[in-house]
Amino acid sequence: MFEFCTDPETLSTFRWFSCYLTNGAHVLFYQSFLTVFALLAVTAPIALAFGFFAAAGARSPVAPLRWLGKGYTAMVRGVPDIVFFLFFVLVLDQGIEYLRHVIACPDWDDPIRQGANFIVCDAARTPQSTSPQWVHEVYNFALAVFTYAIVFGAFCGNVLFGAMRAVPRAQLETAEAYGMTRRQTFWRILVPQMVGLRAAGPVQYLDDPDQGDAASVPAGHRGCGLLGARIGRQPQRGLSIPASRLALLVFPGASGLLPRLHTRVGNRAGAADPETVARSGHHGGRRHAKGCGMICGEALQSYGLRALGYGERLLPRGEITLCDQVVLIGSGMIWNVYFAVLALLFGFAFAVLLAVAKNTPGRLIRKPAEWFIFVFRGSPLFIQFFMAYEAFVMLPRVGIEFELFGVMIEAETRWFARAWLGALIVLFLNTSAYTAEIFYGALRAVPRGDLEAADAYGLSGWKKFRRITFPTMLRLAWPAYTNEAIFLFHATALVFFASFPAFQQKGDALYYANYFADRTFNPFIPYPIVAVYFVIFTLIIIALFGAMNRHLNRHLPGEQRPRLRLRPTLIR
């Protein structure tokens, strides 16, 4: 960029650093931030509009609108956002081209889906291969905006619906008493009060794309941009789009997740030893004469605990059935549950200590807790995975020896670079920071009268905290902590995208979903299966934490018990 950068003598001076920061790669990196901010600026009002209409529909007296509003927020919020971004863009893009194909080419006789190829007539290409570059960029950007708006709209809709329910009924009845119609009451009373009650709620979710996009722009991706997945499409007779290029629209680093047409790039799900390749027909020939029940029973016996290393050593290669996919992906969910349960258990205890430390007047105790919470809440979880992995791989593989009270102790370090331990540590630290902030807010909200009553009864120190402060804090924080538990469970899907490798093909749900999508060239089956599993486990989390919430508030009258309102944070 600078003229002096062409002078070789610049390398011996400090000015070379300015040349390094202004080279082509860094300029593209800076431009990617402009793309993120533009995406946020365009997505925010659209997402708010989606959320507003979803909230209005959820409280509509018309049953179909009410079902649509509640179903939209429940389904989108129940699926991990990474899975939604990967799958929905593919469906949306191919759906647009399929509709155009049906309208523009009614006489087309060839099948549209031919293996991994999605082939439509020339008139249905979106955009046309002869279109200028800016048309491709605008189309890519529009798909990204629409996808993000749907996800953020669901979360904003849930917040706005809760705000509408929190508007005092007396105000609405007063408006009706003054002769206002239902429409006037909605726009003049309900909406202004809703904005006043929950103005900061949607902002929290609309602020998250800045961190969520970190998952969409992994390090090392050329261009570091959200767009460009389909920019390089060349004119051709048939439209043949690798699904991985469509996924790149909102997740550029996920090129290995969906099937490739021309090459197979080795990754964690696709890598196989020579013996596995030689036996690619395993289980394929003996299933034709068996019924569905026997096939499912065989799949359950062979792959039910495959993620833990038990059962069939080789993954299915020949005729892959629906039962194989359901069973093996369900087996991978064991690791997702493992990450969530252990991270929540250890994170809960550590978060209580952090919250108490942050609430302590002593500066030496309060400041470390504040900085820990700030760092882990201020950086994206996806980046934390990468940084932790880079730190763990630098540890000596032979272990670290140190002396403790005169005894030499050798600590094993090679397992830190494995997903089962390294990823668990990252999730534990991340959820500890977020949970600590929730508990800290609850500690500050403990009624002063409760503490004064405890002092009057002679309670102090540990007994006061155990009998008064901690139970009240837990009761106040539990609804928000439920949302954190749901988010953490969804965040376990990020382990697959992190650098932590799976050990002996013992992967999580997305690991096996990617394997099946790569083998069958059909992502429309494994990824929805993953989404269904996550929805089921999310409902289980809601039920368990709801029962605990009722237990914590069992001493309150029914009308005073706070209800769980699920407002999970999007990707951090």
Overview of this protein structure:
This protein is an all-alpha fold and 572 residues long. The chain has 2 domains: 3-254, MetI-like (MetI-like fold), CATH 1.10.3720.10; 332-560, MetI-like fold. 61% of the residues lie in helices and 2% in strands. It contains 20 helices and 4 strands. The chain has helices at residues 16-21, 24-58, 63-78, 81-104, 133-166, 169-177, 182-198, 200-207, 209-216, 243-247, 274-278, 292-303, 322-358, 363-378, 381-393, 419-444, 448-456, 461-491, 509-520, 526-552, and strands spanning 113-114, 117-118, 400-404, 407-411. A hairpin with a 2-residue loop joins strand 3 and strand 4. Residues 203-290 have low confidence and may be disordered. Keywords: Cell inner membrane, Cell membrane, Membrane, Transmembrane, Transmembrane helix, Transport. One of its GO terms (cellular component) is plasma membrane. Belongs to the binding-protein-dependent transport system permease family. It is found in: Cell membrane.
